[in-house]
Amino acid sequence: MTSLADLAELVRAPAALSVPGDLVAGAAAAGVLGPRTAGLAGASVLLYWAGMAANDWADRGLDAEERPERPIPSGRITPAAAAGVAAGLTAAGLGLAAAVGGRRAAAVALPLAATIWGYDLAAKNTAAGPAVMAACRGLDVLLGASPGRPVRALPAALTVAAHTWTVTALSRREVSGADAALPRRTLAGTALVALAATTLPRRTAVSPRPGAATASPRPLAAEPSPRPLAGMVAAALPVGLAGWYVARYGGAQARVAAEPTAGRVRAAVGAGITGLPSLQGALTARAGAGLVGALVALAAPLGGRLARKLSPT
To answer: Is residue 306 very low, low, confident or very high in pLDDT (cuts 50, 70, 90)?
Structure first.
């Protein structure tokens, strides 16, 4: 009988800590951060877990050779059960997104789910793989912005997508190891991602009154602050969180460049997954929700601790 521990391993449960920050960053950028953000984050987590289960189902033959300890090749979960979990979680995620965000959220959740399945079933082992996975994360950010004007969250979505491209490019060398050129390229990309997170336009992250969710938020710069110290902290927080992101994920990539073994590549991929909340926190803080951004970033060390018990890759 399949246990909860087996299912958690199938869907790589700890990695889901990197998901809610996408929705929060998107909502903050669009100025619609509010109660619906939590519901949309829950829907996104379900879709993420569905993608992980579908990934293992699609890779069951390869895993039998390279990772026989995984749930399907080890016999702890049957292929049919994994496919059922993936389909069920997808349906649940789409249903929750529609229930929470209506047509606007469903209009983003549907292509998100299609892109997730497209990556697992077709694109993963092709040259388009990193770009398709990056599109998944970009759409995830836009799902958070769907109650308002998603176009306002495009810069944040592209920033998270660029980060995801670097992680996915590295993940393709988790078993074989990499040449030193790859981590150097991804490290340069990480530096640009961190720079973008600290220079995006600032917006208010306070949700407007009911019935006015799509109203254009006012730039924070237009609102004089009576507390200069608070303003300095608000300006420094995105920089500090982005620096934390670079130290965590960039440091792991630097170690791969020095010794590009499979073990170090896997460690860097894990750091990219569990360290993503610090980037999401920087984007959220930059949008004007400093406290929320700091809380989002706290998922990074928590994810790192859980990853020691259950691999996120």
So the answer is: confident
> For the chain, percent helix, then strand, then coil, each to nearest 5?
75, 0, 25
Dihedral sign (CA 112, 56, 24, 234): negative
Q: Kindly report, residue by residue over 281-299, the tens digit of the pLDDT.
A: 999 999 999 999 999 999 9
Q: Are 284 and 21 in contact (CB under 8 A)?
A: yes
- Which residues of the chain form beta strands (DSSP E)? none
SS3 226: coil
239 Cβ neighbours under 8 A, 6+ residues apart: 198, 282
End-to-end CA distance of the chain: 24
d(CA 169, CA 142): 23
Q: What is the pTM of this model?
A: 0.88
DSSP sequence for 243-300: HHHIIIIIHHHHHHHHS--HHHHHHHHHHHHHTHHHHHHHHHHHTT-HHHHHHHHTHH
- Angle CA 117–118–124, to nearest 5: 105
CB atoms within 10 A of CB 36: 20
Distances in Å between the Cα of 169 and the Cα atoms of 52, 104, 105 are 17, 32, 29
In the DSSP assignment, the letter for residue 215 is: S
Q: Report the distance separating Cα 196 and Cα 25, nearest Å.
A: 14
33 sits in the region (left: phi over 0; alpha: psi -120 to 50; else beta) called: beta
Separation between Cα atoms, residue 100 and residue 129, nearest integer Å? 30
Whether the CB-CB separation of 208 and 31 falls below 8 Å is answered with: yes
Helix ranges (H only) for 126-258 are 129-145, 154-171, 181-199, 228-245, 251-258
φ/ψ (deg, to 5) at 144:
-65, -30
Summarize pLDDT for 141-182 with one digit per residue, the tens. 999 999 999 999 999 999 999 999 999 999 989 888 889 899
